[in-house]
Specification:
The chain is built from twelve helices and twelve strands. The protein is an alpha/beta fold. The two termini are about 35 Å apart. The relative contact order is 0.14. The N terminus is likely disordered.
């Protein structure tokens, strides 16, 4: 029988057990290649396999021998982990980790990690792009020109950016990058984040505001950067939107459900706010009958803020490194459940 690198293969006739590498599964994916993950995993003695799982049953059936899981959107629930007895680590391919039951992983002794740093610049660039596109009504003007209308007045009024106020919902790394990028445009930046060290905001010349409603009332642009959790679902809802200026614009490059989309649609339809730039929506892909698709004052992109030619490879490498650390007896660097160390599988 042929030999394969990293394995010891012998026929059953020789009475020797087949030895295999521990397996790491990509549970679901949109990328065309995982060469950057393989470059990290193979030298460490781990095998990468790709599967497409959409349900708990898929995961349990296809990933039975998993040492680790690299996850895009698949539901990594307590039930799944309880039925994958060899699994030691779950890594979310990205920053948000709402598809991973972190509490369940902790109870079962499984490390949970994410990749928080791979696309900070890309997402903040995209948020800035949406802000500028909405503020300057670029899509509306572009569509008018392509329809044969050469007239700036189709986009009036356009207000200057200088002197306007950007409100940031959460002030993590991406929001901090965005704050630094808008300062040269002459914008004032305020933020609401009850978990941030006030000194961090002070050092960057950003005013922390006590309540989300107060910030919404002051902001000309409200940019959402909060992760999705039970406490942040529909954080930007009717009460917050009701406080906003009729000219204000909402930007979201975080997670769709952080905004109450039905409330946002009503506010836009009733012209209680000026517009929105959304990279994420509550249901993805967006439903073809979603009213947002028909609004001239809404710019939509397909959950693309994270992407660049560099970010995919970096994402794969950093996620794979977390699995290797656990395989080598170390803790993940971006550990989501530090309490798990007291009762590991």
């Amino acid at each position: 029988m042929a030999l394969t690198k990293g394995r010891r293969w012998t026929g059953a006739a020789f009475g020797v057990t087949v030895m295999k590498k521990p397996v790491v599964y990509v549970t679901d994916y949109e990328h065309d290649s995982f060469v950057d993950a393989v470059k990290v995993l193979e030298p460490a003695g781990l095998e990468l396999r790709l599967v497409q799982c959409r349900t708990e049953e898929d995961l349990i059936a296809k990933c039975q021998d998993a040492f680790g899981l690299l996850v895009t959107y698949a539901p990594i629930t307590r039930h799944v982990l309880a039925n994958l007895p060899q699994c030691r680590i779950v890594v979310r391919f990205g920053i948000g980790y709402d598809c991973v039951d972190v509490e369940g992983a902790t109870e079962l002794g499984v490390y949970a990690a994410n990749v928080p740093s791979y696309c900070e610049e890309e997402v903040s660039d995209h948020a800035l792009s949406l802000l500028l596109t909405c503020a300057r009504k670029v899509v509306l003007l572009n569509n008018a020109v392509k329809d044969g209308v050469w007239d700036y007045k189709v986009a009036t009024p356009i207000r200057p950016l200088r002197g306007s106020v950007l409100g940031l919902v959460a002030f993590g790394k991406i929001a901090q990058h965005l704050a630094a990028k808008v300062k040269p445009l002459g914008m004032e930046v305020i933020a609401h984040d009850p978990f941030i060290d006030p000194q961090v905001a002070l050092d960057q010349g950003v005013e922390l505001v006590d309540s989300l409603e107060e910030m919404a009332a002051r902001a000309d642009f409200l940019s959402v950067h909060a992760p999705l959790s039970r406490s942040t679902r529909h954080l930007v809802g009717e009460k917050v939107l009701a406080r906003m200026k009729p000219t204000a614009i909402v930007i979201n490059t975080a997670r769709g459900p952080v905004i109450d989309e039905a409330a946002l649609i009503r506010a836009l339809q009733e012209k209680r706010i000026g517009g929105a730039g959304l990279d994420v929506v509550e249901q993805e892909p967006i439903a073809p009958d979603n009213p947002l698709l028909k609004m001239d004052n809404v710019v939509l992109t397909p959950h693309a803020a994270w992407y660049s030619t560099a970010s995919i490879g970096l994402l794969q490498s950093l996620a794979a490194q977390e699995v290797v650390r656990v395989f080598q007896g170390e803790k993940p660097k971006a550990l989501l459940n530090p309490d798990v160390v007291h009762h590991l599988r």
